[in-house]
Amino acid sequence: LAASQQEAFSSTIVTAKAACSYAYIDDKEFDIPQVDTPPTLESILNEPEEEDEPFVLEDTCLLNTENIDAHSCETSSLASSDSGDRAHLKRRKAIETNATVHGSVLRHSTLKGVSAQIVSAAVSIKVDAGLPTAISFMGNVVLSDQNQALRLCLGTTATGAEYGAVSALSINRDCTRLLCGFAKGQITMWDLANGKLLRTITDAHPPGTAILHVEFTDLPTLAVCNDSGGSVFELSFRRVMGMRTCESRCLFSGSKGEVCCVEPLHAAAELKDHPITPYCLLAMASLTKILVIGLKPSLKVWMTFPYGRTDPASVPVLAWQFAAVQKAVNPVVAFCRGDTVHFLLVKKDESGTIHVIKQRQLQLSCDLISLTWLNSRTLVLMDSSEKLHVLDRPSQDELETLDLHEVQLVYNSSHFKSLATGGNVSQALALVGERACYQSVCSYAGQIFYLGTKSVHIMTLRSWRERVEHFLKQERFTEALSLAWSFHEGTAKAVLGLFGDPLKRKAVVADKMVEILFQYVERSLKKCPEQGKIQVLEQHFQDMVPVVVDYCLLLQRTDLLFNQIYSRLLENPVARGVFLESLEPYILSERIGCLTAPVMRDLLSYFQENGMMESVEGCLVHMDITNLDIQQVVRMCWDNQLYDAMIYVFNSGMNDYISPMECLSAFLSTDEQVIMGNKLLVYISCSLAGRAYPLGDIPEDLVPQVKNQVFEFLIRLHTVESTLEEEVHPYIRTLLHFDTREFLNVLALTFEDFKNDKQALEYQQRIVDILLKVMVDNSDFTPSQVGCLFTFLARQLAKPDNTLFVNRKLFDQVLEFLCSPDDDTRHTERQQVRHLLFLSEAVRLATCYQICEFMYEQKHLYDRIIDCYLKDPLRKEEIYNYVHNILSLPGYSPKDKQTARRKALEHVKASQIDEGPNPQAVLTLRPDLHELLVGLLCRFCPRQVTPFLQTSQHYRLEETIEITKKHDLREATSYLLEKKGDVQGAFQVLLQTLKTKLHTLTQENPELEALIDLIQLCHRNSHGLNQQQREVGSCIHGSTSVSLKELTMKVLNSMSSFIALPAIIQRILQDPVYGKGKLAEIQGLILGMLETFNYEQTLLETTTSLLNSDLHWSLAHLRKAVSRGLHPRQDHCNICLQQYKRRQESEEEIIIFSCGHLYHCQCLQRKEQGVMGKEPGLVGDGVHSWSCYKCTSRQGTRPADRVSVVGGRMRATSLAQVSLTLPRHAYFHIHFTHFRHFLCLFFFFTV
């Protein structure tokens, strides 16, 4: 601290750690005069420190302000414009904080020991030090100093008289040196270890100017200073041969614009190796702009940034801070002049280049005079009305606002005005100095110190616990819980004291919130009003209970809510009722899904006692009821008509979906049960759709089961307690009688999902059959209800994927109802259903063409009516009269006539196709009409003649050829000649066309078309042309020009399929066009032909190899199949039923078929099973062909018929049999006594 007095006495008070021993100050040495009743340090230190109450000296008579010269003092604070006014020394109330969602962010404390020393020095007659002028702190010494012991008092009265008041202070990084700047321009350096004066600098800057700022850099031998002339100087300290020197260098001249503030970049110990630190950055704020320069390794200006338009009286302020931006820690300088705070980020890229990047700015509504960083995310700003604004930099949210009027802040205006040197400063600088307080605000390690005229104040961030406790002391539990929840979720700003991973932080905060909840409940129960209306008591607990419930649910501590808290609330009946009522909205919003058994019983009892049955039903359908007495709940639901809850209990508690339907259906027979019936319809619809009633979904594994149960319920023949008088299918009857239309709508919605479910489709058909059985020809249902059924059936039949079957008679009844002109009920609905049904596939398959005509007539779709005439075999010949009537009779619009004309012409063209997808739609014309049509096409549409001739077959060739020749249509003539068989004539026609078009050489497309036509003719009929005509290339090459050579390759490629390559090459070489040129002109042509030859040769070889492989594979598999042994089913003949070997010495021949039946050859011959051949029983060259007598007899076919087929089938039959000759002395002797031994040998036998 520095102080000034009328006689210009200057002294500095520095604080040190508590570990340092306290030394008594020698009054004689320091000329400290005795005072009457000064406060002792012991008394000051023993006073209890109140956190939220600033220190104000009790004994106001100790301060003698009569001897203080007002002109020698600094600019007074807004709250201390008259320092001698005793009213300002009275004890004030605690500073109020804004109780926002962020709570109290800053802790405001007063350094009472230092403050007492300031007041003591000011009122002491011996010392007479005057009021303080500057403040600075040594690193973290003050932070850990709890006793605020006085250690040093630097300077003498002689020094103060010579140098004036202290105007600036700075302590170096290792807290060993102190720089003091004075009002008359001198600078002194002190050794803080022993209080020795090391240097007195008088020539560092121009004389006659006051020192405004003096700052150490991170380099121990380098400092900067700023004088009232607006200039900035670099101070380099040296010690050579025991002599301490100081060299000065001007960094910025005030003639270019006065600098008001300088701030070097200080890096903490952990950031000393940061890539920006070696550059020794310095930020300077002038009246017009901000400058960022680097002092090392050489002086360099890195950036200048102008303020823009600002108030001339605004104070430029700036501050450095290392902050994490984009996952990297880099220095950020914040500066402002006026109401806008700017941020500049300084970083070094990988290439070593320094970049200064402008970040987003912060706009305020007040004029700022101080800017300080608390940490990398939090700034503290002070405006001209001495109010602190705590801001969060990333979000730019204002966290808190504090009023500092009671601090009585010290301003540095006298130094900016340079009153000690005669006031030789510019008016702009003097105007800025009115609100300059640079030397009264100091920050270090998350603490901000403010120097007042009589005290020193400190601002620090509160820990998260302190911020919560601040609300609790004021019994503001709701705000405390809200703030704690923001800490729990990580959304709070300026958080201090929460460490570890997110889960641990949440656990710590959750424990604190539980503690707050208990305190809130206890406080509400203790402070409950003992007297008054019940509404007052209810309101008292309604302010507390929802908050407690909400935060217990947020913390997922329902155990805490329903056990400890609920047990405490049971002591007060009003609190119990409010608690139970408050649970309802949370249950309805499904935030609470399960209650403990006692709470659930109390909830139902309370609602039932107070007649809140709707609330009971709403809660039941949203909760897990497995812990309830289901019978009791069901009984309560029936007694109070809580049908939704009853259905939910059956479904969720017992997985029973049918019992509610049975119960509700039993009551639908009575009157005035509309609500119950509607609920039943909705319940059935939800069950069939897989949805739970009234909320949620049925479990996926139960959906098919529930659907089947509901269908089985609907199609039951009788109820459980049926009587003899009960009609069949009572449930469907009941629902139809209740509301036919809505029940059918439910079924229609259900049938929409039946596509691939075979069982569901069976239920669908069964239900439709029951509906028809119950409603049709039944007097119990009105015609309107039957009409609803017919409408329902029509909609189902009109579906594209319809699988319903109804008989023809019923279908006619449906159509009759829909088309009835006398019934006007629900006209729009019936019309829509008619449209769907008549356009459906069912009507088309039923060939109801007259019905479709009726519908199309209403829609004016006359082209569709023409289709109906064409498809109706009975009225096909009437189409001409119908088209004639539309085109000639009045009453049809021009658009309708044009549509009918276009449709008729389309069918006239389509009628020439004899074979098509719908042969019934063919309209056959006589040949003379065809020829007439060809003549018309030749006259008006010559391009459509050839396509028409290709699709039509009912014209005469000779007459049609004459017509095309008459109109000179050579392409059509060539096609007809080719169709007639006159290929030579067709060739000559197209060749003449090609010669003509090549002669003109005026258009490219006609040449190409004629050439392609000629090539296609040669392709189709190459077998009918002679060798000379095949070699059509000579004619082409002789006539073509160079521009048509690109067409030659297409001609030659087509020739290569029918003409030998040597002949083609000879023609090319003999052609006069290519014979005159060089070989290079035809090189590509010849090489292309050779390449084609090689490709075709390779293709032929590959194809031959594949065919041979496939043939070998087929033959191998066929041989394998033929060589496979056959297994007889019995050991006897299937005709004579005797053993296959009847006599021991006989030579028997047996036949075994692939079906396993065994026969004697003689037995089959006797049955005449041999096929017709050269001899009886032989086919071809004496090869027998047999068929199994037993198999052919079962199939109802005579054996002779089955073996009479010649070809592959007979061969297959013969391959499926095995004939064995068994002589006595043959190579294979069978000496086995059982037929199984024969089977073992037979499996290895090959035919």
UniProtKB/TrEMBL annotation:
GO terms for biological process: endosomal vesicle fusion; protein targeting to vacuole. The keyword Metal-binding applies. One of its GO terms (cellular component) is HOPS complex. The keyword Transmembrane helix does not apply. CDD domains: RING-H2_Vps8. GO terms for molecular function: zinc ion binding. WD repeats lie at residues 159-200. It comes from the Eukaryota. Pfam families: Beta-prop_VPS8 (PF23410), TPR_Vps8 (PF12816), zf_RING_Vps8 (PF23412). Residues 1133-1192 form the RING-type domain. This is RING-type domain-containing protein. The lineage of its organism: Eukaryota, Metazoa, Chordata, Craniata, Vertebrata.
